[in-house]
């Protein structure tokens, strides 16, 4: 697959990932954190704010293509 096409597909995937992830994370937060203390909110949003990076890193690695020898 050409690099330009791979990067285009990867960019679209990252945008979709961020939008879906933000929607799901906020829906879970609204449903479960209603009466939680402030530190519960802080911990939840800190973890969910960093967790999306893992699948995004995998997409970026795929976008870079196979390793050059």
UniProtKB/TrEMBL annotation:
The chain crosses the membrane at residues 12-32, 38-60. It holds the Pfam family DUF2842. Keywords: Membrane, Sugar transport, Transmembrane, Transmembrane helix, Transport. InterPro entries: DUF2842. The keyword Transmembrane applies. This is ABC-type sugar transport system permease subunit.
């Amino acid at each position: 697959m050409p690099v330009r096409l791979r990067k285009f597909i990867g960019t679209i995937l990252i945008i979709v990932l961020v939008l879906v992830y933000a929607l799901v994370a906020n829906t879970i937060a609204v449903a479960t954190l209603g009466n939680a203390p402030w530190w519960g909110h802080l911990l939840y949003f800190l973890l969910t704010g960093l967790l999306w990076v893992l699948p995004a890193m995998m997409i970026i690695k795929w976008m870079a293509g196979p390793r050059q020898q």
